[in-house]
């Protein structure tokens, strides 16, 4: 057995034994670890296996419904129940893998790898308000602080500038090419998603980046889906989490919308206000992500989630294919909204964005000033907390109870849900399909609330109880 694997397994045994004791003398009854589960309950295992089995078919079903049934998600079920079609006939009508699509996808991923690894950020040198370049991440459970090259905004700008240059000047490829190969590209995205997830799984056993930040539950399905390594890397700078979520995933989000808009123009000779709203609102959200990419290093994805199928396949397939359903729907069903409807959607999205951004800004300001700041014209209030990392060190942090964070414990998620609803409402009320996003985001963010609070409860112990007493609601004051 290689030394790296031996070290990883031995570190896991030591940490499991330490966790099983439940408390340390320095911290009383405060748990020693935080992060994803060490042990897998039956409900979690069933959920994991169900997602591994059915999530790829959910993506295929929605895309197929648009391709074969004009975005109706009920019609194929009715036809199947009446015997008018079969699963095999539906599968046979779907475009298959093509080498042209594989070439397109390989060029796309290789280009994003090149931008991520070989083009250091220069934007932060010209825009003082933007934080880019080499930045520190959050402290890992093992007590490490990784460094990241923050250049996502630069990658996004270069990629989209090339799309516009091609569409209006160079004509290297048709501006609708992604839509035209949408399903064949989905097979390519699945190949990459499963490949990177499997590689990360094997890597965690045989050559982990840091064995102290690995978690082995003993259940192969849970380990594969939720990940073993906390921050898998190749070399010093290629970080799996940051690259796969930000580059082929989120950079592609707005680019895919542009391809949809170009296809709508090609088919109907004009672009509807609903398509413009979807493009604008989602572009605001994506640009906010890249403008605040350094802040993303402090979020749950980087700070708590391990890298497995959940992030690897999800970033390659689930995100680009299901987060863009509104634009896909509007290609098949162009909707021209009334001025009142369009204005209402725009206001809902902008107000949601204001809440989302303001809440995150308040938290970031609080962290940067270590609590020495004013929020809503008053001195910030907070709960002092302490926790222990795997290296045995005791650390201190503060939990904000002012501003939006005094209204509810996750009020930024409330703003996020408002933005999500605006995307869906821009598509009118003719079909259910574009509303999948708000249903999914509600489930995701409520689940994240529960996951995050479970971690915080384990991490902070009695201090977390003091915080929840001060801020009793999770999302919606008086409701939840």
UniProtKB/TrEMBL annotation:
GO terms for cellular component: endoplasmic reticulum membrane. It is an enzyme of class 1 (oxidoreductase). Residues 1-30 are annotated as: Disordered. Its EC number is 1.3.1.21. It is found in: Endoplasmic reticulum membrane. The chain crosses the membrane at residues 42-63, 153-172, 184-206, 267-287, 307-325, 337-356, 417-446. It comes from Monopterus albus (Swamp eel). Catalyzes the last step of the cholesterol synthesis pathway, which transforms cholesta-5,7-dien-3beta-ol (7-dehydrocholesterol,7-DHC) into cholesterol by reducing the C7-C8 double bond of its sterol core. Can also metabolize cholesta-5,7,24-trien-3beta-ol (7-dehydrodemosterol, 7-DHD) to desmosterol, which is then metabolized by the Delta(24)-sterol reductase (DHCR24) to cholesterol. Belongs to the ERG4/ERG24 family. This is 7-dehydrocholesterol reductase. Pathway: Steroid biosynthesis; cholesterol biosynthesis. Keywords: Cholesterol biosynthesis, Cholesterol metabolism, Endoplasmic reticulum, Lipid biosynthesis, Lipid metabolism, Membrane, NADP, Oxidoreductase, Steroid biosynthesis, Steroid metabolism, Sterol biosynthesis, Sterol metabolism, Transmembrane, Transmembrane helix. PANTHER family: 7-DEHYDROCHOLESTEROL REDUCTASE, DELTA(14)-STEROL REDUCTASE. It catalyses: cholesterol + NADP(+) = 7-dehydrocholesterol + NADPH + H(+); 7-dehydrodesmosterol + NADPH + H(+) = desmosterol + NADP(+). The lineage of its organism: Eukaryota, Metazoa, Chordata, Craniata, Vertebrata. The keyword NADP applies. One of its GO terms (molecular function) is 7-dehydrocholesterol reductase activity. It is a multi-pass membrane protein. GO terms for biological process: brassinosteroid biosynthetic process; cholesterol biosynthetic process.
